Amino acid sequence: MLETSARLLRLLSLLQARREWPGAELAERLGVSTRTIRRDVDRLRELGYPVHTTMGIAGGYRLGAGAALPPLLLDDDEAVAVAVGLRTAAGGTVSGIEENSLRALAKLEQVLPSRLRHRINAVHSATVPMPGAGPTVDSAVLSTIAAACRDHERLRFDYLDHEGAASVRVTEPHRMVSWGRRWYLVAWDVERDDWRTFRVDRIRPRVPSGPRFEPRDPPEGDVAAYVSRRLSADMWPYRARLVMHAPAARLADWISPADGRLRPIDDQTCELEIGSESLALLAGFLVMLDVDFDVQDPPELREHLRAIAVRCAAAAVGPARDTKE
Predict the structure, then answer these.
(1) Which pTM does this prediction carry?
(2) Measuring CA to CA, which residue among 86, 92, 132, 141 is closest to residue 112?
(3) C-alpha span between 33 and 52 (Å, rounded)
(4) Distance CA 238, CA 308 (A)
(5) Crossing angle, helix 279-288 and helix 300-317, to 10 degrees?
(6) pLDDT recorded at residue 325
(7) Residue 32, phi-psi category: left (phi > 0), alpha (psi -120 to 50), beta (remainder)
(8) From the CB of residue 290, how many other CB atoms can be counted at a distance below 10 Å?
């Protein structure tokens, strides 16, 4: 039989692993009586763990949420995941959490066994963070938006668009999307009666939040795809639409969501909407895909493809030979 302290830790670990446990099953797992389980549950409650009794024929227990944060038990993989996440957060795109992340990481690493510290240090030493000059997002702003999304409450905020024009928006927030070093809010704009995407670093919430609303179906059925299409449309000055004579799955590794969107037509063809900084670059990229295609829009793209065809044909013949003797 386990000693009392070790048994309490084992009981807590079991309660964290599953939503609900019958008392008899807990007793069997720990090799004690159900009466002992009841006493151990009372001890956990005295330590601040909100263990609730569940109704039923056999009776059981469930670990709930409390008013204060009690100690947590993590297995090896969970501890490594938390430590790596804290180190990433300390140098990430969310401002205001760097110091807290480092303090939490120091507390965690202090109690980690050496084998786990070696794993975490190996990840850290083998990783070179890429410095970025992108915008940072205030953690308080993220929390405010996340709470409004969770509680289905209208969110009013001051907003600066990409041209610096200020406006006050009234929205029904749906979800936030993290893309690279930027965060975006997808929300229903009440005054414009349509879905909109907002850069979170340009949002200044007005509190308190507004009344509750009934959640809408996400735009296009997929928030990530919606943001991808909107960003792709806004990012590139030149856009093209093509029919590719290849399955969409074959091209998926070459077409990033930020550049374009693939839609299957059938098993052998797909439609590609793609953007680029210039039509010349786009023509070169399409040739590089090594797939037959038809240009739908714009017609000017065909001129760039003809120029590439002439240049490639000349290169295929080889340099002109000097016929003089």
Answers:
(1) 0.57
(2) 86
(3) 19
(4) 18
(5) 60
(6) 47
(7) beta
(8) 8
Q: Which residue has the tokens 């909107």?
A: 230
Q: Dihedral of CA 121/123/126/129: which sign? A: negative
E strands, the chain, in order: 21-22, 51-54, 60-63, 94-95, 137-138, 155-160, 166-179, 182-189, 194-199, 203-206, 238-244, 260-264, 270-276, 293-297
Tens digits of per-residue pLDDT, 71-97? 677 778 888 888 888 887 777 777 777
As given in the structure block, the two tokens for residue 74 are 């993590």
Question: Which amino acid does the sequence have at 116?
Answer: L
CA distance 82 to 88: 10
In the chain, the amino acid numbered 181 is: R
- Give yes or no for a contact between 186 and 176, defined as CB atoms under 8 angstroms apart: yes
**Which H helix or E strand runs over 226?**
helix 223-235
DSSP structure string for 153-180 = B-EEEEEE-TT--EEEEEEEEEEEEEET
CA dist., res. 249 & res. 79, Å (int): 37
Integer-rounded Cα radius of gyration of the chain:
29
Q: Write out pLDDT tens, residues 225-276.
A: 788 777 765 667 788 999 999 999 899 888 876 677 888 999 999 999 888 8
SS3 content of the chain, % helix, strand, coil (to 5): 45, 25, 35
- Residue 148, SS3 per DSSP: helix
Sites in the chain below the pLDDT cut of 70: 1-2, 56-58, 66-71, 129-134, 180, 232-235, 257-258, 320-325
Show the tokens assigned to 64. 């709930």
Residue type, 252: A
Give CA–CA dist 90/86, Å, rounded: 6
